[in-house]
Amino acid sequence: MSQYVLFQDIDRCIGCYSCEVHCKANKDLPDGPRLCRIFQVGPKRVGKVPRTAFPFIACFHCEKPWCVPVCPTGAIQKRPEDGIVFIDNAKCIGCRQCIYACPWGIPQWNPETCQVVKCDMCKDRIDQGLLPACVTKCITGCLYLDKKEDMPEERRRQHEAIVSIYPESSE
Amino acid sequence: MCGMCTVRCPIRVEVDDGRATWIEGNPYILGRSLCGKGSAGLAFHYREERPQGPMIRQGLRGGGQWKRVTWDTALDYVAEKLGRIIDRHGGRSLFLSCRGGPFLDLPKTFLKAVGSPNFTNHDASCARNVHHASLSLYGLGRKAFNYDFKNCRHLVLYGRNMFESLKVKEAKDLMNSIASGMKLTYIDVRQTVTGSKASRFWMVRPGTDYALNLGLIHAVIKEKAYDTAFVDRWCTGFSDLSEFVAPYSPEWAEKETGIPAEEIAAFVQELKEERPRVVFHPGWMLARYMDSFYANRTTHILNVLMGNVETEGGQIVAKGPGDYGKPGLNVLADLPPEVTERRADGVGWKYTHFDPGPGLFHLFYKAILNEEPYPIKAYISYRHDPLTGFPDREAQRAALDKLELIVALDAKFGETTWYGDVILPLSGYLEKDSPIAAQKGKIPRFIVRRKAIEPLYDSRAEWWIFRELAKRMGVGKYFPYDTPEELWAFQLKGTGYTIADFEEKGFVDLAEEAISFDRKDQLKFKTASGKIELKSPNLEKAGFPSFAPYRRPKPIPEGSFRLVFGRHAIHAHGHTQNNPLLHEIFPENTLWMNRDAAGKLEIRDGDLVEVSAGGIKAEIMARITPFIHPEAVFTVHGFGRTVPLLKRAFGVGLADQRMAKGCLEKYDPVGGGIAYLESMVTVRKKMLPKEKAA
Q: Which of these, B586, B593, B606, lies nearest to B688 by C-alpha position?
């Protein structure tokens, strides 16, 4: 796991797919590779109201990423300082070993450059003190980036907010 | 300012070595948030097929044979042809339509300068009923109020799909309010993303919104859930209203709408506690039936009964510079002499109950065909695509074919643009300066769009095109500027601001503190009585009742459906289907069908179905769900493009508007809105050759 967590507050997500576009526009990607994805689940009936959920998936930046050791040129690597898994374009020879190795289908093929491309948490933006493209422009603020040690506190805060609005929710 | 859809959210653009690399929401207004279409603006500019220079049609209309010409040639051609038409038939023989918005001063000035009263917009296909209903009550149009979602306790939406027809600021506010406990009641013929965030969802029978509202008003009055003080002070005709709704009980409404009477009763009990911080959002596109005016009017009436006017969490009167004692922007359209000619659509003289501002677009087709009240020979479509937005392509083309000149100002290849005689390509919204726009609100604002990058192709901005055309028509003096800077200076003269004040944020707010009107005596309604006219003398003078008896929609034959259209968050009507980034996420529309209705027709999820109406047929994939009313099928609007240059969107998906045969003639006589859903489609399973053989 990287030092950061890209977290989605699914109750706030409206499934607008903007994060996918923000990401691709920022990386100037052609048709094909999609570095983060929204998946639609539903609508299905939950109580009286049909609900739809839109889970967000991007690279997990694994503690022990399987994509890294299979790379023959060392292009795909884990940043020592914060654990972000990224690809050095200058070294990627397009052999796709990382695509086969990743159990989550995270690395994507870029047919224009004939190289692999993946979520690097917009590390260039993080290095400038900015947030990743998907987080920066998310409409409802359902996506955010946090230090992993701060996450439990954030989750607790959210849970508290939910419980305090719906006192009957324990039923 | 973004230009991907007509919301025009404020944006900030980063440019690296002449190339735009990043678009985000204006940090001061939107906190950098932006929708996917907004980010796809980069792909629109750099990767989408769009007109790359002026073109004059060579073969038949719509045949796609174009000759690339210089701007001089194109403008001379238009001016010469238009000049000859005006010599023969007068300035009134020209009409212009657009998509509305804040930049209308240029086209309005041009029309006025050449002596035409015929300015119109797309709104008959959109919010006219809502607007006219608002006028009939308040004497004020639908834009006279903003909704205070931030402080609202209960929001009621009638198909106003706020999380899929996105306005970034509105969606943000709405989600914040939901997260902090605001109730949301969502009413529609199908479940949407917005509805899936609601605390209550009512799946209403198509065409019965009016019945629901009558039942609601009945219950609100009976349960004394309304604001008596506000109604006494500001309304006329309350006793007429009470008397009128007496027979329309929630039990009666249940029979019409399918919504249980006890749920209506429970809802009204909630309102009692929550008002005035309750908003019944009148939306736009409820305007689809012959009685939509009255459905909208009763929605406005429910707001009035809540007493939510100019109150926190309710409807806030949108204030202009004048309300803050400040001068507004100077307007070019004040320069040419007034045009006294009557409008060709009959609005203002034949139809006195309609707002003559933009009139009604579809009535121009009637005028063209009948040459009544006078001949219409030339049409400028300015960023407007009626062949996509209005129903019945064949009927529209029959009228367009009678025109001697169709000029399209467009940054894209719209269906109507493709059917034109001359294409004058507009620069993309990152490639041009636009006039300063004034926005009313809690605090009024001036906002400006500045050019971020040089045009990629041989396109121009509208400030230049209208001026050049005017010069050639001999009325250039009404466009007294040579550069956008001079135009801005003209607009800002006397306001105390200069364009330098826009440098930092892109806008200026005209005040720091918001003012509120006193609800006892400062509300200004522009009706004859100065009050909210529940009973409207204006309507009654035009021969329409203030309160119309409900008429049940005709039963729908087996296998027939109302084809409901709507939005997905990734597309803006017909504007974005060809955008590479957006197409990838949502390439093709599907047909939502009710599970039981589809079952009767042996249609399963994923089946190819044939949709037909009035001899028009199209194929589409069925998506089966229990969450759409059995009398309706639904699809996302904007697909089924016929311009072959659009390499992604061409021929993909179903064009709902083509199925609304005969609907160009069907419009709400009181509200003016096109009644798209008064035509039916039939759906049947499409057998593949192999299946047929089996």
A: B606
